[in-house]
Amino acid sequence: MRFGRPLWAEIDLDAVAHNVQEVRRHIGSTPQILAVVKANAYGHGAVAVAQVALAAGAERLGVACVEEAVVLRRAGITAPILILGYTPPWEANKVVEYGLTPTVTTQQLALAVARFASEAGVVAPVHLKVDTGMSRFGLTPDETVAFARFLAEIPSLTVEGLYTHFASADEADKTFTWQQFHAFLAVAEQLPHIPLRHVANSAAALDLPQLALDLVRPGICLYGCRPSAESGRTADLRPVCSLKARIVRVLDLAAGETVSYGRTWTAPRPARVALVPCGYADGLPRLLSNRGAVLVRGQRAPMVGRVCMDACLVDVTHIPDAAKDDEVVIFGRQGDAAIAVEEVAAHAETISYEILCGLSPRVPRVYRQDGRITRIQTLLGDYDASPEMAVAPGG
Ligand SMILES: *Cc1c(COP(=O)(O)O)cnc(C)c1O
After folding, report:
1. 241-390: CATH homologous superfamily?
2. Is the pLDDT reported for residue 2 higher than 70?
3. N or C: lower Cβ tally within 10 Å for the chain?
């Protein structure tokens, strides 16, 4: 199987299913799981991940905005979809048309959804968000109680959920998380008619499963990353995404020759460097320049010189067999060696979330399920994998 330039993200859908079950193991059988698939499932492909998460036991999906939800509906997904972010009132028609569940924080949105729902002869479910310490979306506790009473008077709306979001559940010190939880409970007690109460992101679902309430909202852990080094330690998570490429050229440099823009790396001795077709336009942070490493033939090859828009260079002097078309693992496993996306994130002074979400649409997604390649998604479209595709991509 060959397509485009040799760079691809392998998405292990069996790992998504395993990670959903791992959340289930932590929270027990009662709370629902709302799989957070915003930002194209953190870069992994929202439709494929949503289908697998639902099949593995998630009951609901969460996205950031209406358009992300519409993509899932157009793919035939019928599970409830909660819009976690801001919905402007002019999207109320789509909310009703596609049967979505918005988080309402303004009267304008509530009234607009109510009007379209009433015209359609349906009762639209909405969730209310309390701000207990993020200072971001959500109403204050007092506003929430008043707003819930206002919404209760609107016949074409039903307040199905009440939730809050934790600011620091992934830290070892859970004091502020408990404070937020108690502030939330104080509001929930005043609104006992709301059936679904939920607070837990990945970190809380794994570290504080006693806060699961009626539903949990895991995101990052479904993709196989711990929310932070201090959290999710009891979970056996399997990384879902591996970023791979093939060497497109090997160059022999004399001592003193320089590499890439700005000439920030000089060969200290005769050196061999490999050109890897992955750059910052693919989502490889430019901060990895002269910092990161990749795997070639099971060994680490350090990045040398600046990461370019479409390519980067690695030093393979110590890997004498390294050759054109060799597989390069930017993160993921190669034989016994592995580079975690968390390590890439640390080199780039960020978190795994940003690396995963940043993988651009230019990087083909190769889906694996039941141990074989099932689907390939490129800029030019989606392909069902034919039997001859069942070999390594790009080679
Ligand atoms: C993104 C998001 C989540 C998921 O957070 P993770 O840390 O990835 O588990 C949960 N709830 C809300 C409201 C979110 O915006």
Report:
1. Lyase, Ornithine Decarboxylase; Chain A, domain 1 (2.40.37.10)
2. no
3. C
